[in-house]
Amino acid sequence: MSPAPETPGTSQAAVTPEPPESPAAPGSSPAAGTDHVYLSLAEEHDDDSGRWAFGTGFTDPLHGVDTAVPPGVDGAALASLCLELADDALVQAQRLAEWCTRAPELEEEVALANIGLDLLGQARLLYARCGRADGTDRGEDAYAYFRDPADFRNVTLAELPNGDFAFSIVRLLVLSTWRLAVLHRLTGAQDPVLAAVAAKAVPELTYHRQYAAQWAVRLGDGTEESHRRMRAALAQVAPYLPEVFASSPADGAAVRAETVSVLEQVLAEAELAGALPVPDEPGSADGREGRHTAHLAPLLAELQQVARAHPEATW
């Protein structure tokens, strides 16, 4: 881990969320004023204008949505925030995809693949919003396939190799709990498109967290070997927690408190209370500043190799 630099600068007032007075239940409707955007995001479109993963038939995810940056919202700050959250999702999705044919059971292989697809969908929407907000009008392929590792802004925990099943469950538990806390607050963002994207992601992340929590309890309160592996996984993840908390875009203290509270509840149920030391203060924001581990480059090389070999190809 690198020495702690300054905390990231993506919590500008222009994109600061305005959460409801009492948190809405996961999966509830978006805040008033974003309903039309949410519906547009959920619609299917018949044209074939978009291209993700070279010819899957997906369309522009923001097709038909008013993507003008609202007055008073800093477009550059909005784009930076969307890029960070999209990179988190894309890199985590790629790691989850690596469990295909390797998971302990077929059912878990399907579940992990579906979680990865949820995250991939979130990344698509966020990349599309980024391209509109920063004024470049770049498509999602440009962000996913044609950037180098130093240009990615994901938290480094997402890029670490999968390790064993216990490590992947602990990482999924931490990242889904934290991401849910972040995106729930962004359902009140001043930008209605970001608010709608966040609202769409909340029920997905609620399931991701539930899935990881159930497995954490099963493994932690299971056999002696599964308990040992969970303790080892928690020890591996712990050094990356300060960076995760430092990477919260806004309401960092509230996000940290919610994340810690949920993790403590799950770990207590799993007979793992105290096994995940929680930092008192946020640490460095390495990934948000483009400082990554050696593991990101090969992950991206595999993800990007076909696109870079045939940049103009379509199927």
Short description:
This protein has 315 residues and is mainly alpha-helical.
Task: Give a written overview of the molecule.
One of its GO terms (cellular component) is cytosol. Residues 1-34 are annotated as: Disordered. Residues 24-34 have a biased composition (Low complexity). This is Ring-1,2-phenylacetyl-CoA epoxidase subunit PaaC. It contains ten helices and no strands. It has helices at 35-42, 75-97, 106-133, 140-145, 165-186, 192-220, 224-237, 241-246, 252-269, 296-309. The longest helix has 29 residues, at 192-220.
State the main characteristics.
Ferritin; mainly alpha; 315 residues; globular; disordered N terminus
**Which fold name corresponds to the CATH topology?**
Ferritin
Order of helices and strands: HHHHHHHHHH
User: Class, according to the CATH hierarchy?
Assistant: Mainly Alpha
User: What's the count of strands?
Assistant: 0
Tell me which CATH architecture applies here. Up-down Bundle
User: Please, how many domains?
Assistant: 1
General shape: globular
Biggest beta sheet summary: none
Q: What would the average pLDDT be, to the nearest integer?
A: 84
Task: Tell me the CATH superfamily.
Answer: Ferritin, core subunit, four-helix bundle
Instruction: Identify low-pLDDT runs.
Output: 1-58
Protein structure class:
mainly alpha
Strand content: under 5%
What share of the residues lie within helices? 40-55%
Distance between the terminal alpha carbons, to the nearest Å?
41 Å
